[in-house]
Specification:
345 residues, Rossmann fold, alpha/beta, 18 strands, 6-stranded parallel sheet, Quinone Oxidoreductase, Chain A, domain 1
Length: 345
């Protein structure tokens, strides 16, 4: 076996390099990576933006949304065998800090996260990984779906933070991958009215396909006024900010219903003009989302049972040797792309 990696050596540049086969230590499994989803954070690296935060990261291997097949089982590992198809949860927490002990391991300060410097990602043929963060997939769940469990987990954690339940009304500001995963999660948990706002018609069309009851093109309409009209001036029980921009963040307080919840999912850099009067007058609450925890079993069950058809968010599949094309298409044609996946033979 030869381990080939797509190594990012410069902005928008991959160099396919042979790397040593990973050593599978005790407590680990060796995984032949088969599918890698392209995340927004990967694109921030690929176009050079992330180098402002990680100036010395290159050369670097991207990819943290991974599904694959076990080729070796390390000493002491139980419950796995060669040939098992698996999904990889990309963050490895320390397991001993106060947050890990409380079960909120996504807040662990010592977490080792794939494709976050100094840790290389999964855009390579073989990796070794701690078995306790690997999940065996049911027979009817593909390795591509296994890779997509990662963004779905963000959506599930967001819906959980918003306490979405049967009949909840929701607004999602941002119809990209995470917004649509949040929609799928909320629908699976029983949400009723689901409003999605975005500036791209193709994203809104996909939202309707996935179960949104109403969509708003906030480039052509005033989103706050339109959502007020749709809800008889009441707003919705939960508002999810998934676009990660200041403009939508500032709208959340005007859209949330009295006694409702705002869930901040998108990554926003810089200050946000925000009217806190909307919060205390409505006695609303604001909750943050940082990745996820304890979601993979739920995500696997939802996909395996057919409750969530996660493959419907995929807009392009590219083979390994054309990985750069998948990234460039995702960057330069965002209006046509929800989720691109790299498939490795």
């Amino acid at each position: 076996m030869r381990n080939i990696a797509a190594v990012m050596t410069d902005i928008r540049t991959f160099d396919f390099q042979e790397r040593p086969m990973p050593k599978v230590s005790a407590g680990e499994v060796g995984i032949a990576v088969k599918d890698v989803g392209i995340c927004g954070s990967d694109m921030h690296f690929f176009n050079g933006d992330a180098q402002k935060i990680f100036p010395n990261a290159l050369p670097f291997i991207l990819g943290h949304e991974c599904g694959g097949i076990i080729y070796e089982v390390g000493e002491g590992v139980e419950g796995f065998k060669e040939g098992d198809r698996v999904a990889i949860e990309p963050g490895v927490p320390c397991g001993s800090c106060e947050f890990c002990r409380a079960g909120r391991y996504n807040l662990c300060k010592k977490v080792r996260f794939l494709a976050t410097p100094p840790y290389n990602g999964g855009l390579q043929k073989y990796i070794s990984y701690p078995a306790n963060m690997v999940y065996r997939l049911p027979e009817n769940v593909s390795t591509m779906e296994g890779a997509l469990l990662e963004p779905l987990s963000v959506g599930l954690h967001a819906a959980r933070r918003g306490e979405v339940t049967l009949g909840s009304s929701i607004t999602i500001l941002g119809g990209g991958c995470i917004g649509l995963c949040t929609l799928l999660a909320a629908k699976a948990l029983g949400a009723g009215r689901c409003i999605v706002a975005d500036i791209v018609d193709s994203h809104l069309e996909k939202a309707m396909e996935l179960g949104a009851t109403d969509v708003v093109n906030s480039k052509r309409e005033n989103a706050v006024e339109k959502i007020a009209a749709l809800t008889d001036g009441e707003g919705t029980d939960v508002v999810f900010e998934t676009a990660g921009i200041s403009a939508t963040a500032s709208q959340t307080g005007y859209i949330v219903k009295r006694g409702g919840t705002i869930v901040m999912v998108g990554n926003i850099f810089g200050d946000v003009p925000f009217s806190f009067r909307n919060i205390y007058v409505k006695e609303a609450q604001i909750r943050g989302v940082f990745r996820y925890h304890s979601t993979y079993p739920m995500a696997i069950e939802a996909v395996a049972s057919g409750r969530i058809d996660i493959q419907r968010i995929v807009t392009g599949v590219y083979d390994f040797k054309h990985a750069s094309e998948g990234f460039i298409q995702a960057l330069d044609h965002k209006d046509q792309c929800i989720k691109n996946v790299i498939h490795i033979e």
